[in-house]
Design goal:
single chain; 424 residues; alpha+beta; 8-stranded mixed sheet; 7-stranded mixed sheet; globular
Length: 424
């Protein structure tokens, strides 16, 4: 046998298929252990519940699952419309499957499935920027996260005595989250098993308030030590009054808890509700009970159905009609032989479109040389539609190209500051 023959004989057999949870569960648990997502039997069990909601594809090496990508259904608000959402909830690759493009192929495969199932937009929480850009995702908006002494909350109301909550109240807590006021960019995931798994991870507790049998507002936190810091993982409320009572409840813990971490709720500017935040940050510098504010984009999004997104836009100014020349990297990715089935059903977004914004918004395939032209990638268009950045800014950062007059018109056409308000 030649050296080339020996190399050929050692080539792994790689295949892509749907997840068979009963048969693949143990291998998937092993992958989670390898990548550090699980370190307990509790998490191993919860993982199986997690994968039971949604659709997953797996990559196998010599018949063993070594990579998996899970998508789950939800909604994402564009202006005043909740659009069907495909969330890429988990991308997991074992130690021996790195460098084989399995995660990229499987993510492309699952996005094609999400589009076929009617999703208008896809979103994911990114481990870092760059990887998912290759599949058409653009970076989402900045989110503020605060660490603060709860005693500094400028809330004058006295909260009522709350009720203790545990993971066994997960269905009621999920119902409260689903009933919260919706704003531009808000995400909902009505997935009872997944949500319970998120709650049931140890060292967590909840406090909430009822009206009769209905849980109207609650906070779910991760605890650490006698004096904290506590981390707010979930906060659900039906009204602004409910949010204020929850913040007052956090303030009431300040006699023992010295610091609370939380992401800014979509409905308020939290910094304006703190007394002397810069002073407290200076005093707490290098302390384990920190006081600080971090701003970052943790999620990415991409359009899957252009017509649904155009119809959802609330722009009511003077009509804007332009030629859209769009590029979508998904078309190239679906050329992999393993994705032939998805290639046949994928509705490509690349090419020439005529797009009209205004009272009679519409989009259709075609070319009109008399219209001003905008050229960009689907990554960039997704950021533009959700108001992550203005058209004139995307010229600088994302390579968008358009005449100055069109840029000026588009700068005022999209609602800014989308906020998912949901951890996914």
């Amino acid at each position: 046998m030649t050296r080339g023959d020996l190399a050929m004989s050692n080539e792994p057999a790689i295949a892509i298929r749907d997840l068979d949870l009963p048969s693949d569960g143990a291998a998937l648990q092993r992958v989670w252990r390898e990548i550090g997502w699980s370190d307990s039997a509790r998490t191993d069990r919860a993982m199986l519940e997690f994968y039971s909601e949604g659709s997953a594809g797996v990559g196998t090496i010599n018949g063993e699952v070594e990579c998996a990508v899970l998508i789950q259904p939800g909604t994402m608000r564009l202006d005043a419309t909740d659009l069907p959402l495909c969330v890429v909830s988990a991308v997991t690759t074992s130690r021996i499957a790195r460098g084989l493009s399995l995660a990229q192929k499987l993510t492309a495969r699952q996005l094609a499935k999400g589009q076929q199932d009617g999703a208008a937009v896809a979103a994911l929480g990114m481990f870092d920027q760059g990887f998912y850009n290759k599949i058409g995702f653009g970076t989402g908006a900045y989110i503020n996260e605060f660490s603060f002494d709860p005693a500094l909350l400028n809330i004058d109301i006295k909260p009522r005595t709350p009720v203790r909550l545990t993971a066994e109240h997960s269905e009621q807590m999920l119902a409260t989250l689903m009933a919260r006021p919706r704003l531009h960019g808000n995400v909902t995931l009505n997935l009872p098993k997944t949500f319970k798994c998120e709650l049931d991870r140890g060292n967590r507790f909840g406090l909430g308030y009822y009206e009769g049998d209905r849980l109207t507002h609650f906070v779910w936190m991760k605890e650490k030590g006698e004096n904290g810091p506590y981390r707010v993982e979930w906060m659900g409320y039906e009204t602004g009054d409910g949010l204020l009572e929850l913040l007052a409840l956090l303030k009431s813990l300040a006699d023992q808890i010295y610091a609370v971490w939380m992401i800014e709720p979509p409905h308020v500017q939290l910094q304006s509700m703190l007394n002397r935040p810069f002073r407290s940050q200076a005093i707490a510098e290098k302390s384990k009970f920190s006081a600080e504010q971090e701003t970052y984009a943790w999620y990415q999004l991409r359009i899957l159905d252009l017509a649904q997104c155009v119809e959802a836009l609330d722009y009511v100014g003077p009509e804007i009609c332009f030629q859209l020349n769009l590029d979508d990297p998904m078309d190239q990715l679906l050329q992999w032989p393993e994705l032939a089935e998805q290639r046949t059903c994928w509705q490509s977004l690349s090419g020439s479109w005529i797009l009209t914004l205004g009272q009679h918004a519409k989009v259709e395939r075609g070319e009109d040389a008399d219209l001003p032209a905008l050229t960009c990638s689907i990554n960039t268009l997704s950021r533009l539609f959700w108001g992550v950045a203005r058209a004139s800014s995307l010229v600088i950062s994302d390579g968008l190209a358009a005449p100055a007059e069109l840029l000026s018109a588009l700068d005022g056409a999209f609602t800014a500051n989308p906020n998912p308000g949901w951890d996914f």
